[in-house]
Give the backbone structure.
Amino acid sequence: MSLSLYDISIPVFITALKNLSHNLRKGEAYAAEQGIAEEELTTARLFPDMLPLTGQIQRASDTARFVAVRVGQIEPRPMADNEVSLADLQARIAATIDYLGAVAPDSMDGREAAAVSFKAGTRTLDFTGTSYILSFALPNFYFHVTTAYAILRHKGVPLGKTDFLAGGTPRS
C-alpha cells in the first residue's frame, strides 16, 4: 500500500491540531492556577518580530486548510483571524479540525503533479501538489505549531515532549 497526499497531510494536521488544543487547555489551567490573565498567553511572542500565540495558531490553521483547498480542490472556509481569547483559539482549532474531517481521502488522488501556485508577499510560489505539501505546507504548519508550544512553555505552562507529540497521551 502506498501513501497518498491525503495520508501525509490531512490526518497529520488533525492529530497535531488536537495536540495543540490539549496544550491550550493546559495553558488555560495554568493561567487559572497562577492567577495570570489569559491575555498574557494569547499576546505572548518569543521575539518582537514574531507573531503572538494567536497568530501562530491562525497560521497553523490556515496552512492546514490551504492544503485542502490548493491540493484537494475543496471549497475554502475563510476564517477572520479575530481570535483574542483561549476559548476563541480553541474554537478556531475545532473549526479547522471539523473542516479537515470533511475532506474526502480521494480528493487528492492524482494531484501529485498538479500545479499549486500562490502569492507570498510580492513573490509567486510555484509547486506541484507533492512538493507543496512536503516542502512548504508541512514545514510551515509545524513551524507555527512548534512556536505556539514554545510560547506556552516560555510563559511557564508545564508542557513536555509528550504533550507536543501525543496531546499528553502516550501512544503504543
Residues 69 and 76 are 6 Å apart (CA to CA). The chain has a mean pLDDT of 95.
